[in-house]
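User: Can you predict the 3D structure for this chain?
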Amino acid sequence: MFDPTIWLRSALVTVFLAATACGGGGGSSNGPSYSITVSQSSVTFSGVSGGDPLHQSIIVNFVGDGVVVGTLPGQTRPDWLTVSAPAQSASPVTVDISASTLVVPGSYSVTLRFATGKADGTNVVYKDVVVSLQLVAGTWIRANVYGVGSIGVSLNGGALQTLQRDQLKYLGLLATGTDYAVTVPTQPVGQTCTFPDGTTTATGILGIDTLELRLNCNASLIPWTWLGGSKSAGDATVYGTRLTPATGNTPGGRVPSAYAADAVGNLWLFGGGDTQFAAEVRNDLWRYNIATGMWTWMSGSTGVNAPGVYGTLGQEAQANAPGARSAAAAWIDASGNFWLFGGTGYGASAQGMLNDLWMYNASTDMWTWVSGASDVYPAGTYGTTPSVNNIPGGRSFATVAKDPSGAVWLFGGSGLGATPNVIGFMNDLWRFDPSSGVWAWVSGSNALGSISVHGTLGVPDAANHPGQRLGASGWANGTSVWIFGGSSPEGIGLLNEMWRFDIQTGVWTWMQGIDPTNGQVPVGVYNAPGTTNDDVPSGRDFASTWTDKSGNFWLFGGNAVTENPLAASGYVNDLWKYTPASNSWYWISGSNGSNFPAIYGTPGIPSNTNVPSHRKMEATWADPSGTLWLWGGASSAGNLSDVWSFVPQ
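Assistant: Here is the predicted structure, written as structure tokens:
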């Protein structure tokens, strides 16, 4: 019996069908001799279930009025088999046989009959061909790339295939249980594209229906070193014994903590919580020793939400302790004392924004309440000259930077200006002298909601000033105070302006970035790393900073605008260098996208391939040798407690 969908000449179907079903096959003695031959008596297909169709061709030579192809009498054509009629009708003809792989793995077989003869159904002759299909289980390999527009990859040494940014591409189908290797033959300029384990080749044995690979492309101009700490988020606090360092001690993942580095490069860390706006915050003080890699619990409670114990203003006491808080500012003076200002947390008897100033003396292991209020939500006192009566209002997420003279600069944040009980974003700039304990209101408004006045790019003007913002990044180099980014009600919220405040003249200059009032989205400019000085970081808040021994400013991570989708934001891991002398930004390390994983490498071994994961609110500091350090922060997976370093180049 023939399947009428696969015959050659319709006039022959009925008569040939009847003839072959009756066993016809001989020629007639009263006419030409009818005959048929095929190029092979069997066809075997072998493949992977779920792949592309398989094809083979059979050459048919015949003497007769045409060729019919069908199954044996009593059989039907299986769905996996397709037989295509040839375009020509004269002998020889080519018949294409196609086997679909869209069936479950297994063995399949059918016999095809090729027949010819006289048009009236006599003199029918035929040949049978056995068609077999052997399918094994398969695994699709697909991949996407992040951090570049496109990149070429090869599967098992095959042809180069192009991955497009953020677009999943199927690279091929291989038999389950076989080896695979996806390689990146040519790296982009200034970047290294690796798989999550840090290798440029993904290898393994397939064992699932679909294998999805992510290729991450990071700028790689400097070598990062992972020093220790967990690769996982959410580590719990382990206190150990107070004032005793131990390898098992850890503050655990927490944000946003106040931090500063001492003269030998050790990190001091105070408070923080489980999240940016955590209901439970701490008042513990920690020290990280960069030489031993060990943490020491120095002071404070092992519990949460501890109220402040203020004692007598200006007098240190064993019982004194700042209340638990987050988003405070901190610095260390020339004598090694740790200072703490403001934040959101607990005063003597209530919770809210704080403006209390504290000093911890490590040699006596005691705290001193230096100034500010013991209650919450205090307004600021904005005298026009430096005075012991001056003090910023309660606030959190202010920007703090210490200049080479030891003076501390505090800018903006969220809190109170001069008006009581009114909270918002600020743009006031303060200077604190640790030697005298005096605050000076230097610039900006004592009211909330001040809008930026940019003037002309690169031109100082007494009317210029940055607008209200919180979570900005800052540096101070002796002659100037520099402010970058932050978040604000202006524009889309995240900013990428660079501002310079001249300490001598008291004048602001808009140096770089996009004016948020003009409606542009500050997506940043990411040229091929190492090729240009025209780069600009995207708008962001809660990024962290360093200053190297050459006077360059460094910026890492934060919550930033990303290019895909436009104006969306995410946590990033890009590292930037800013050279004040040339007013130039350089993209040095990390990705131009968000939510990139870390590549840890071997602990203690620097590598240009290594890079910390995406994060914000991390602690960053420099040691006397010029090495720059990073600890913790908040990632999309939770709070981190890993330690990294790099040597600026």
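Residues 146 and 216 are 5 Å apart (CA to CA). DSSP finds one helix and 43 strands in the chain.
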